[in-house]
Design brief:
The protein is of the alpha/beta class and 287 residues long. The chain has a domain of 200 residues: 3-Layer(aba) Sandwich (Rossmann fold), CATH 3.40.50.300. It has eleven helices and ten strands. A hairpin with an 8-residue loop joins strand 1 and strand 2. The C terminus is likely disordered.
Length: 287
């Protein structure tokens, strides 16, 4: 565990609090509907009464199709969205009332990660490290090491981000999140756009971060195998509702399935369609 991470954990108000506590969490979006006229809007529940908890050091995977609410859940937990009902807390800190404290504990990787496009991968990581209070001496060797571990080519570290492919940018996003060894790591499709070898490298690094840095991990993914191999518990999120959350083996037994994909179908009544595009809620119109 890093000194920074230990200092953050020591400031937690209640060490017995769960790493993540979600109760009846709700989020609504309003979308344009031409059938209702020029200014017509219709409301859709992106999350509808979601409740669950995670213990410190646990890895939980959430499976869901586009529009299921996965990205909305991650954004609410990382304080990027405000809930319309219910509550969520990170190590006892309410995501609304104690947003600043939550941001110190959380790091997020998503398919639409933002960067300083004119800056290089190394420069973006260096900037992020300064934000978290790390010194140049601490990151001089750490940044190249992390980039290498996620499979980022050494000869491209000084290229501007705007010249990199989506897959390359995704590697930098993961490296940035792992740089500070966050207490809670929120991963929203972390291996999307990566080639098979890089995908395996990233998955192995996720395991290492969890075991060596005492991190708690919430993984939202469309990759069934990834969910099954990385997480102790797997959740099924469908149309904003959390239908189940338990170990993969128990999930398949409950639905009388031989595979996780069959269990997903039994729970939702729909085939699981892996899709690397952003969830539908990413394109909602905010009211």
């Amino acid at each position: 565990m890093t000194n920074i991470q230990q200092a953050v954990i020591e400031t937690l108000p209640r060490r017995e609090a769960p790493a993540v506590g979600v109760r009846d969490l709700r989020k609504e979006f309003r979308r344009r509907d031409r059938k209702l006229g020029r200014f017509g809007r219709r409301t859709r529940d992106a999350l509808d009464g979601v409740s669950f908890s995670m213990e410190r050091g646990e890895t939980v995977a959430i499976l869901g199709q586009n529009g299921s609410g996965k990205s909305t859940l991650v954004r609410l937990l990382s304080t990027l969205l405000l809930p319309d009902g219910g509550s969520a807390s990170i190590f006892g800190h309410d995501v609304v009332a104690d947003a600043r404290a939550v941001r110190r504990l959380v790091n997020r990787v998503s398919v639409e990660a933002s960067f300083f496009k004119k800056m290089s991968a190394a420069e973006n990581l260096s900037y992020a490290a300064r934000y978290y209070g790390m010194t140049a001496r601490q990151t001089r060797s750490l940044i190249p090491e992390i980039l290498e571990r996620v499979g980022f080519p050494a000869d491209r570290r000084d290229e501007p981000m705007e010249s990199l492919s989506r897959g390359m940018q995704q590697k930098v996003a993961l490296a940035r999140a792992l740089l500070t060894s966050p207490v809670l790591l929120l991963l929203d499709e972390p291996t999307t756009g990566l080639d098979p070898r890089s995908k395996l490298e990233v998955q192995e690094f996720i395991r290492e971060i969890r075991s060596n840095h005492d991190s708690t991990i919430l993984l939202c993914t469309h990759d069934l195998a990834e969910a099954e191999t990385l997480a102790e518990r797997v959740g099924i999120l469908d149309r904003g509702r959390l239908l189940a959350l338990e170990p993969a083996a128990e999930l398949t037994r409950r639905f009388g399935a031989s595979t996780l994909e069959e269990a997903f179908f039994a729970a939702t009544g729909r085939e699981f369609e892996a899709d690397e595009e952003e969830d539908d809620e990413d394109r909602e119109v905010f009211a």
